[in-house]
Amino acid sequence: MADTLIHPTAEAPPVEERRRPPRVRKTPVTYLLRFIVTAYLFFLVAWPVSLVAINTFDDGFGSIRALFEDPDMVVALQLSAYVAVWSVVINAIFGVGMSLLLVRYEFPGKRALNALLDIPLSVSPIVVGLALVLVYGGRNGWFGPTLAGWGFDVIFSTPGIIMATTFVALPLMIREVVPVLEEIGIEQEQAAQSLGANGLQRFWRITLPSIKWGITYGVVLTLARSLGEFGAVKVVSGNVLGQTRTATLAVEEKYLNFDQQGAYATAFLLAMVSVACIVIVAIIRPKNHP
């Protein structure tokens, strides 16, 4: 009698299988969408970038070798790398801090602050550069003359380039970390707090490991954006050869001076650094991480 009351139940699928999205039946519309997306990415991204690589190596490695034999180009590449590293460090520190502030705390003006963080993405970099000149310009800026009196020049020097680059790249870090913080919640941090962990211990042992991939993606995007920034840097740098000319400014200069081979080679180097970072992250990230 007991056997008749027991109904066989279907065995639950493995966890990994349950996480997979349901399979969508392939229809002619599916193939049409695939074709449109592939064609869109090919003509807008893959083809133009590949042409830069092809033109760079028209004469073998001669154009790349010529870049490193030019002292001014070496200075420009070093300055771009220096600015990008500082921009990444500053945005990583303040980006994580602002993300924690937005996700973990409630305060008046939170929505306004959240909206302000998107301004660097919506405003033209030229406007950003002009705004920084109005505030930190050495002659007519609000703080510029005071800072210049202390011997600290911002505009037309490296600090101004770092400031402009950091400004335009700031949202990239925050928009990568905030969704991860919202997803992990605060349960583990509360459990650690109940066991006596202080704020620094909770951040170092629980929060930071949980958001490390968000920070990693933010660092990659910030690095790529910083290396390629042009508009704001052109306004605040002064474009002085061998001093404040970055690699992106050198690309424009070479192209306008009919040195297209040098412009292609410089652009190729900048693009390859960004692509290499993205590829490395794609290789080392866990398979179950989106």
From TrEMBL:
The alphabetized UniProt keywords are: Membrane, Sulfate transport, Transmembrane, Transmembrane helix, Transport
Q: What is its main location?
A: membrane
Task: List the Gene Ontology MF annotations in alphabetical order.
Answer: ABC-type sulfate transporter activity
CDD domains for this protein: TM_PBP2
* Record's keyword annotation contains Repeat: no
InterPro entries linked to this entry: MetI-like (IPR000515), MetI-like_sf (IPR035906), Sulph_transpt2 (IPR005667)
Q: How does it sit in the membrane?
A: Multi-pass membrane protein
- Disordered: annotated segments: 1-21
Domain ABC transmembrane type-1 residues, every copy: 77-285
Which locations, inside or outside the cell, does it occupy?
Membrane
Transmembrane spans = 31-54, 74-103, 115-138, 150-174, 263-284
Naming one, the record's GO cellular component terms include: plasma membrane
Q: Does the keyword Transmembrane belong to this entry?
A: yes
> Which Pfam families does this chain map to?
BPD_transp_1
Q: How does it assemble?
A: The complex is composed of two ATP-binding proteins (CysA), two transmembrane proteins (CysT and CysW) and a solute-binding protein (CysP).
The entry's function note states:
Part of the ABC transporter complex CysAWTP (TC 3.A.1.6.1) involved in sulfate/thiosulfate import. Probably responsible for the translocation of the substrate across the membrane.
The cross-references to NCBIfam families, in alphabetical order and at most eight, read: 3a0106s02
Tell me what this protein is called.
Sulfate ABC transporter permease
Q: What is the lineage of its organism?
A: Bacteria, Bacillati, Actinomycetota, Actinomycetes, Propionibacteriales
